[in-house]
Amino acid sequence: MTEQDRLYQIWVYLQAEPLFWLTLTIGAFLVGDYLYKKSNQFPLVNPVAISIILVSSVLLIFDIDYERYFSGAKFIHFMLGPATVALAIPIYKKWHLITHNAKAIMAAVVLGSIFAILTTYALAILFDLDHQLILSLLPRSVTAPISMGISELIGGIPSLTAIITIITGIIGAALGAFVLDLMKIRSLSARGMGIGLASHGIGTARAMSRNEEAGVFSAVAMGLSGIVTSILVPIAVKILF
Amino acid sequence: MLHAIFFIFLFQLLGEVIQKLLQITIPGPVIGLVLLVIFLIAKERFGKRWLSETFERDLIATSESILRYLPLLFVPIGVGVVLHVSLFKGTLLQVLVLLVVGTCSTIAFTAWVMQKVQDKTQEKRLAKSHLKGEMEEKGDKHD
After folding, report:
1. Of the candidates A167, A216, A166, A175, which has an alpha carbon nearest to the alpha carbon of residue A196?
2. CA terminus-to-terminus distance, chain B
């Protein structure tokens, strides 16, 4: 057996095992996180976006299909569920702040959700997008399992909605801080509400990693807007189409 | 740590079962999150002894260490997105512009509403406490 054959065999073995994909994912994230810290936490140097680009490049260069990658990376993906439940702890710790701001939270969630649906619709009409794409776009600002469920219900394409939802999250996480600075929003709770409502879990993850108070309000906005949006989108579809 | 992980998994499991039973679009983990918040607040009000102090500390520490790496957990699905952009067939640019404009304006609008209402309620609270202060002052003079 030549040296090359042996290397090839090792590669074949590694591809089939979760270990390689787990190490690659965590490694890529650490690189993203390192660059983020190096850039003085500049929002556009988003660790999630960097690690996604790094891992995708490896998959594209070596022509590996997503299913093979995901068979390993699913162990990381699995932790999303427990991590969502774990958000209960910071929410509980800051519960007094939530009850204190109950009125503002309700106003922001209801008006924000309506705003998200209507701007999406208006821009989609402006860009002359096709009917089914518009339906897949409408629930985009809420967490993927909810947006996919709504999409299916109204006749969109759930997998397309999932992709749109995730891009929405990354955009919110990367650009949110700029927008809020531009608007001169200083209240941490208002900043969190904006991010969580518009960019669900990915935005919340970023808010939480920067500041616990903003993170808590982001998580609250994400949960409540999920409920409000699943009521509003089907109504909007009935009125608009 | 193992106890805390078990506890978190248990609440997710409860959430998933309820979601399947009631067939609602709210995801199981979100239901688990709500249940856990309710549980913790009920404990605070009614039964401090439901959880031992060491367990609660452990639960807080474990959750915080999971949440510290929350962004990492979105990488696997994010990679799927990059590999499936071909689904947009020629409308990718329009969709991207829509998503950037739509998301940024929603963030701005929501945060603005929140801050406005906060400022208003803050003013009202201040006015109320001010009024109360004045009335008490008058009362004092009367005596």
Report:
1. A216
2. 62
Provide the whole-model pTM. 0.88
For the segment B43-71, the average pLDDT, to the nearest whole number, is 88
Alpha carbon of B52: minimum distance to chain A alpha carbons (Å): 16
Query: What is the amino acid identity at position A55?
Result: V
pLDDT digits (tens, 9 = 90+) for A12-27: 888 888 999 999 999 9
What is the separation, in whole angstroms, between the first and last Cα of chain A? 66
Contact A90, B67 (CB under 8 A): yes
Q: With a cut of 50, say whether residue B103 has pLDDT above it.
A: yes
Give yes or no for a contact between B25 and A230, defined as CB atoms under 8 angstroms apart: yes
Kindly determine whether residue B8 and residue A86, on different chains, have CB atoms separated by under 8 Å: yes
DSSP label of B73: G
Q: Could A193 and B111 be called an inter-chain contact, meaning their C-beta atoms sit closer than 8 Å?
A: yes
DSSP B31-71: HHHHHHHHHHHHHHHT-GGGS-HHHHHHHHHHHHHHHHTGG
Q: Which of B8, B19, B38, B72 to mutate to test the interface with A (most CBs of A within 10 A)?
A: B72
Distance CA B72, CA A19 (A): 16
pLDDT for residue B142: 46
Write out pLDDT tens, residues B77-96: 889 888 888 878 789 999 99
Phi-psi region of A2 (alpha: psi -120 to 50; beta: other; left: phi over 0): beta
